[in-house]
Structures are given as structure tokens and as C-alpha cells.
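thread: overnight batch results

M.L. [08:02]
morning all. the overnight job finished for the chain we discussed friday. pasting input first so we're all looking at the same thing
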Amino acid sequence: MIEDWNNNEFRALKVLSAFPDRYLYVSRSVDGNILNLLDKTRETVGLYEQLEASRGRVIFEFGLVYLGFALILILAAIWMGLLFAERLSRPVGRLAGAAQRVGAGDLGVQVIEEDGDDEIAMLGRVFNQMTRQLSAQREALVDSHRLTEDRRRLFDSVLSSVTAGVIGLNADGEVEFINRAAARLLAMDEGRDHGRALADSVMEFAPLFGRLLEGKTEVAQEEIKLSRGGRLESLLVRMATRRNADGGLDGYVVAFDDVTELVSAQRMAAWGDVARRIAHEIKNPLTPIQLSAERIKRKFRALVGDESDSLEQMTDVIIRQTGDLRRIVDEFSKFARMPEPDRRDHDLAKLMRDAVALQEGALHGARLVADLPHGPLIVELDATMISQAITNLIKNAGEAVESFYEKGAPAGYVPEVRVSMSFTDELVTIRIADNGTGLPPDRARLFEPYVTTREKGTGLGLPIVKKIIEEHGGTLALNDADPFEGCAHAGAVAEVRLPRAKAAQRAVKDKTAEAVGGAK
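M.L. [08:03]
and the structure it wrote out:
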């Protein structure tokens, strides 16, 4: 069947099976428009039925397409947001990292400056400017600190090395600075006395500081005596007001020198002059007085009869007192006119052993214990003068034991004097210790002439010994001794230090020369 609605015709073609090769062709005129409409209606109905059958699948596919498109939009939006956020956060992140480096101390860090005039770009430029300023300020501060530290070290080095004591006070009179000499002379401590008032730390300075505070002068000066560690010291103290650049009060400076040795030297010089005058004025008449007394005794003994005993007693008194005066004058002469030491190489150990042997048994019952080197110890010295000094010190130790007995020694007291010697290549140290009466509180005047703690003493022994030791370039110090084993009482110790560098160097050279000669 052939539906040809456009030509308003319906045709049919049928094979005639009864006849070979024959067909039946039938054609009929119809209304093509109606039949087209009918066909379209059938197609529409079929399409509708087809669409109705596939509506769920279409809706599902449409939903998938919608979701995919929406997901694409969301992802695109997220990507755009991330891209925009990255553009915003990248400069901020760089700023945060740079800020951390600045916080760690790296002031030379710089961030990339963004183009434009927005806040982010301006923040980067301002940050770089800030780090440049901080770096420049830090360099200036470091330079200033280095200069200040150099000045402080120089200031501390100078004040620490000077022998004068220096104390810095603030405007309220509280201690701010103590140099090494001040701490040593005044027994002060930086940790303990820092921030304390001067009157509380060194009360002997309070009157002079009070006069300075009255404001009459900018400087106050006075010689002050104080006692530290059992030693009476004479200090020449000078206090001055410290002002700032504007003229306001910034604080005070206390400077002082230990003039104890100077005062002692002045006294020694004065005593030396007095000794020379006394020796000159007294020594000459002593011999005629003694001879006259002896002649009176011989000539008038027979004439006075029963009074001869009185005459002899009186003349003996004159002769004995004349001898005592002669001995005092001789001591004066030794003190006033100490000869120059005749320095030669001597065995100091042998001199010490001889001095100990000479004094053994003559120390008022004290046991003499010696700890001396057995071999030779060559030192350049005057043997006579050093022997005199050592003998005098050992005798003083024995007299200290005697004085302790006189004052009432406790039961079971065992008197003892110990002599020891140690040495290095540069120095020889001699220690003479006893467990006698000990040292007096005022020890600064022990080396002054006619200062003695014994009734029978002349007070010239220690000054002469000190002068002998100093003539040899050494030092003499008197200190409290440590208690001996088995004795609770502590006496005194005399410590003599003598240089031996020249003799030691020559001995080393001689040994080296002998070794070289033997090798040859």
C-alpha cells in the first residue's frame, strides 16, 4: 500500500499469485489533508506515548545536567574566589612571614611591593619603610651601645686599676658604684651595699658627707681614721658634687686614698731625724758620765766610811743607767742610719738554720719547730742584716709567749714557735708563727718607733726589721696565726717575702752552662 496523501491518492499493489508475473494495481482518490492530519495525529499520539513512557528518564537526565551545570558553576565560583583570595592573601602572607623574621631579629627583610594604590600595596611599602628605619635605628643603637660599652669598660678598667677608692652616689646619697680598691679598703660588697645610704655602709664618712650636703661648697675633704679587719687606716677622703649637663644634681663622688703608709713614713722620717739628733746630743756625754761615776766610786769609797755602800749603790745606778742610755742611743743610731745592704749570693736556708739554732732554748720555754729546706737556697741579700731581722722576729715570738705567761696562760698551755720557709723561682716566703699573746687591735702602728706592747720593749725592733726587709725589696706583714694543733689559742705570725729572681736566674744559667759544657 502506498499512501500518497500529497496527491490525494491511495494506491495498492498486489501480486497475483494465480498469474505469473502479474500484479493488481488499485488507486483511489482520497482527501489527503484529512489523512495527513490523521497521520500526524497518530504520530503525535505515538510521540506523546513515547515521551510519556520516557518522561522519568528525561527528568533524571535533566536533573543530572542541572546538577552538573550547577556543580560547574560552584566550582568556577570557588576557583574564582580562591584566585581572588590568593591575590589578596599572598601579600598578607608575605607580610606575616616578614613580620615573624622581624620579630626574630632580622631587620633587613623586605617584601615585594605590589603595583597599585590599594591598601595592600600601601601596606607593603610602609612595611619596607618601617624595616629600613628599624634597621638604621638598630645600627645606630648598636654603635651607641658599643661606644658606651667601650667607655664603660675603660671607666671600669681605670677605676678598678687605680689604688684610690672611688664610690659613686646617686642624688639621694645611695651607693651606685664601688671600685675594687674601695671594696678592699672599706670591706664593702657590691651586692650588699649597692643601693644603701653612705652613712649605713661607711658610717665614718657620714659627718663629712653631711657637711657636703649643707651646700656651702661643692667639694669637702678631710683625713678620716677608721678600723677594718683589726687594722687602723688613715684615709684622705674627698667628696664632690656631680652635676648633669643642665646643671642639676646628678649625684656625688667619694674618692679616698689610703695614706696610712704615707703617715707612717712621715712619722718614720720624723723619728729618724729625732734619732739622729738624740744620738748626736746624748752619745757624746755618756762616756764622760760613766767614767766620772767610776772615778767617784774609786776615789771617795774610802773617804765616806760607812756610807761607802750607799756611794757604790748610787754610782752603780749611774753606770747602769748610762749603759741603758747607751743601748738606747745605739738602737737610735741603727734606726736612723741604716747602712746600705751589701747584697751577695748567700744560702738563705743555711742562714735560717743558723738563726733557729741560735735561738733554740732561749725562747722562754717555748718549743721551736722549724720546717726549712735541707738543700741550698741561693738569694741575693746582706747576710748580716737578714740574720739580724730573722733573729729579731724569732725573739719577738718568744717574748710574745712570755707576755702570754705573764697575763695568765690557761692550764695545759704548751708554748710553741714555728719557723717555716717556702719558695718559688721569684719569691721566698718566711713565716714565723707563735701561740703567744697575739696582736693588738691597732696594728697599723706596730712598725712605728717606740710603739710596743711590752713593758721592757724599746719599740725599735720591728721598725728596724721592716726597714731591713724593705731595703732588700721585700715586704713584712703581721697577721693573726691559725691555732696550732692541740691549742685553742691563736697567736701571731710574721710573714717575710723576699725576691730572689736575679739569683735564681743566675743559678739557672749556671746549670745550663754546666750541662752544655758536660755535653761538649
